Amino acid sequence: MRSSAGRKICQVRFKMENSNLQDKNILLGITGSIAAYKSAEVIRLLRKRKAKVYPIMTRAATNFVHPVTFQSLASQEVVLDSFSKNKEIKHISLSSLADLFLIAPATANVIGKIACGIADDILTTTVLACQSPVLIAPAMNHRMWINPILQQNVKKLKSLGFKFVGPMKGKLASGEVGEGRMSEPSQIVDYVEKIFSFEKDFRGKTFLITAGPTRERLDRVRFLSNYSTGKMGYALAEEGKLRGAKIILISGPTFLNVPSGVEFYRVESAEQMKSCVIEKFPEVDGVIMAAAVADFTPLKKERGKIKKDKGEKIFLELKRTPDILAKLGRIKQDKILVGFCAETKDLEKEAKKKLKLKNLDLIVANNISSPGAGFAVDTNVVSLIDKKGEVKSFPKLTKREVAEKIWDKIKEMENQP
Ligand code: CTP
């Protein structure tokens, strides 16, 4: 019989052998922060998990740690500038070999530059050319971290799909205590591992996502609609695509760019959205109905324009639109169905009622009365409620982060018997 200590060693070895970082090419950007000394440990841990690490330092970073330290730990030459003696175009060759670009530590300055698309050194030029995921581990004084300009830059990058780990609350270089301390190397490397483990966890699956409002035509020049911008649905499409799913995006009118690599259909009314969803439904493993489908449509659609000389008052007669989600709930079989609900009160009760009524697997409940939630903002405050009644509530997150949580939850449900 094996001892428990022996078993432990075996488990650790098993984990190491199965590290999904094996042979991954990780660019490690190191910028000018005292936390740069921790990058040495980041390299050591990445290499222990069998990744290949290519350090890139800014000039400012070299004031904190000598490049030779990183060169020895990574067994790779540290890249310090864009110009090489041979004909190689460094930012292109580096970015095209990268499976991930990790920037640890990332100063407020580099975050600002990336958010603005500035490329004035080898690190920022490589980020701009990089098509792989970028993970940022910020490190700065807490006064800089809470600065609204910095926060806006972080929000912008998150909504574009950049990932962040940390910063943590703790003792800062100034001796003060606050949020701004870089995450510990082990946490950073665990997050790197997480990115690779979920990166393609929906490979082979097809999901249909609806997004945006619908427009219900009143006459030739007018329509009824709502404030939805489509941001939530588009964030779901982008995140799902990144995680390997084939995405069919059916969108009402929005001003957003169509995410690359998705099968896209533009529709206008609830009726058109229904036809398109029903047509595509047999092809998919699941549907996420993030669209704010109008519940009512004018009974009569005027061919021309309604003229104001019709009188002092006019009355619109409306009829219910088809409830697309409820229809899918009746024909779903083993497909995953995710719905949204927007409430101003009794959120959980109302959401659970809808979940059951429409035969859903998951409902994303929005409290649209809380600040930073609902329509036409970049953030959302949601609870995820599954059909077992389990409720997971989240603080205010960017819509991209909410999308990540929804996909995580779908994965969790898929893995359940
Ligand atoms: N939905 C749909 N077809 C409709 C209306 C809504 O498929 N005609 C979907 C939405 O995409 C969303 C969910 O159903 O996923 C919302 O359900 P709904 O009952 O419309 O909830 P709310 O609009 O939040 O609430 P209310 O009952 O106030 O209308």
Helix content: 25-40%
The top level CATH class name of the largest domain: Alpha Beta
Oligomer: single chain
Summing up helix and strand content along with how strands pair, one would put the structural category as: alpha/beta
Termini Cα gap: 32 Å
**Strand arrangement, major sheet:** 12-11-8-13-16-17-19-20
| Shape annotation | elongated
Strand composition percent: 15-25%
Describe the overall structure:
The protein has 417 residues and is α/β, with parallel strands linked by helices. It folds into two domains: 7-198, Rossmann fold (3-Layer(aba) Sandwich), CATH 3.40.50.1950; 206-299 and 311-415, Rossmann fold (3-Layer(aba) Sandwich), CATH 3.40.50.10300. 36% of the residues lie in helices and 22% in strands. The chain is built from 14 helices and 21 strands. The strands form six sheets. The chain has an eight-stranded mixed β-sheet, with helices on both faces. The chain has a five-stranded parallel β-sheet with strand order 2-1-3-4-5, with helices on both faces. α2 (36-48) crosses α9 (185-199). The longest helix is centred in the last third of the chain and has 17 residues, at 399-415. The chain is elongated and about 80 Å long. The two termini are 32 Å apart. 39% of the residues are buried. Mean pLDDT is 89; it is low at 1-17.
Short description:
The chain has 417 residues and is α/β, with parallel strands linked by helices.
Task: Please give a handful of descriptors for the protein shown.
14 helices; single chain; eight-stranded mixed sheet; disordered N terminus; Rossmann fold; 417 residues; binds cytidine-5'-triphosphate; elongated; alpha/beta; five-stranded parallel sheet; 2 domains
